[in-house]
Amino acid sequence: MRDRIREVTDLILADYKKGRYIDRTDQFSQPDKDMVERILENIQHLIYPGFYRAQTYRYYTRENSTSTLVEDTLYNLSRQISLTLRYCGETQSDEELNERAQELSLDFLERIPVIREFIETDLQAEYDGDPAAFNKDEIIYSYPGLYAIMVYRIAHEMVLLNIPMIPRMMTELAHSKTGIDINPAATIGRYFFIDHGTGIVIGETTEIGDNVKVYQGVTLGALSTRKGHLLHGVKRHPTIEDNVTIYSGASILGGETRIGKGAVIGANAFITSSIPAGARVSIRNQEHSVKV
C-alpha cells in the first residue's frame, strides 16, 4: 500500500510540471476562499448585530463586540485585498500595497451603514411581498433570497471601490448556497424582492430599479456571448425599471432591452426587445390533453 501511495504521489507531482495554468503552485500568493467566507460571515454579523453571534469571541458589550468584529474584518480583508492586488499584477512595493489595501478596507467598512439601509428595504420588500412569511426574523434566518441580496450588496460596494476578485468570490459563495446567481457589478435599487429564488441569474451589466419583484428561474442575461471576452465592458444585459414584476421562468435578454415602469412579465416569457411601461406580457395558455 505504501508503494502504491508513493507511486500515486509521484504521478501527481510529475503532472504538476507540465507548465499549464492549473499547474501553478505559488503558495499563499492568492486570495483564500475560506478566509473570504469568514470575512463575509463577520460582515453579516455587523449587518445583523442581534441575529448572529461569532463563536470565536467572548462579547461583553455592544461596543466590544462591534470593535472586535471591525478589527478582525479589517485585518483579514486588508490581507486578502493586498494578496489580490499583487495577484492581479500590481507592481507597488509590499508596504505600498498593504497601505492601499488597508485604506480600501476602511473605505468599505465605512459603507456598512449604507449597505444596512438597502438591506432594511429589501427585508421590508420580502415581508410585504410574501404572505407565507411568519415574521421578519424568519426571513433573516431562513430566506435564501434575502441572503443572496445581502451578499450582493456587500460585494457591489467592493466593486465600486475597484476591489478585484473578492466581490465575485463572495457572490459565488452565495450562488453555491442559494442557487441565486447575482453578478456583483449589476446595479439594483431599493426594495428588491426575490421570491423562492432558485435558478435566478442576474448578469453583470443588468440595471434594476426600485420595487422590483423577481421569481424563481428568471434570467436577466445577454442576448449572445459568441464574442466571448471581447464583450467585456459592453452593456449586454437588460434594464428593468421601477415597480416591475417578473414571474418564474422568464428570460429577458440583451443590453438594449428595457422593461418599462410597472410592467408585468408573465411566467416563461422569452423577451429580447423592449416592453413599454405598464404593459402585461403573457404566454398564451398551452393546450392540455388528458387521456384516461
Tell me the CATH architecture of the largest domain.
Orthogonal Bundle
Low-confidence stretches: none
Q: What is the total number of structural domains?
A: 2
Overall residue-averaged pLDDT value: 91
Number of helices: 8
Quick one: how many beta strands? 14
Radius of gyration: 22 Å
- Distance N to C terminus: 61 Å
CATH topology of the largest domain: serine acetyltransferase, domain 1
Secondary structure class reads alpha/beta
- Major beta sheet, specifics? 5 strands, parallel
Tell me the strand order in the biggest sheet. Answer: 1-4-7-10-13
Strand content: 5-15%
Topology summary:
Elements: H1 2-15, H2 33-47, H3 62-87, H4 94-109, H5 112-129, H6 136-142, H7 144-160, H8 166-178, E1 181-182, E2 187-188, E3 193-195, E4 201-202, E5 207-208, E6 213-215, E7 219-221, E8 239-240, E9 245-246, E10 251-253, E11 258-259, E12 264-265, E13 270-271, E14 280-281
Parallel strand pairs: 1-4, 2-5, 3-6, 4-7, 5-8, 6-9, 7-10, 8-11, 9-12, 10-13, 12-14
Helix pairs in contact: 2-3, 2-8, 3-4, 5-7, 7-8
What would you say this structure looks like, in words?
With 292 residues, the chain is of the alpha/beta class. It has two domains: 28-179, serine acetyltransferase, domain 1 (Orthogonal Bundle), CATH 1.10.3130.10; 186-283, Hexapeptide repeat proteins (UDP N-Acetylglucosamine Acyltransferase, domain 1), CATH 2.160.10.10. Helices cover 43% and strands 11% of the residues. It contains eight helices and 14 strands. The protein has helices at residues 2-15, 33-47, 62-87, 94-109, 112-129, 136-142, 144-160, 166-178; strands spanning 181-182, 187-188, 193-195, 201-202, 207-208, 213-215, 219-221, 239-240, 245-246, 251-253, 258-259, 264-265, 270-271, 280-281. It has a five-stranded parallel sheet. Strands 3-6-9-12-14 form a five-stranded parallel sheet. A four-stranded parallel sheet has the order 2-5-8-11, with no helix packed on it. Helix 3 packs across helix 4 and helix 7 packs antiparallel against helix 8 (166-178). It is globular. The protein starts with a helix and ends in an 11-residue tail after the last strand. 33% of the residues are buried.
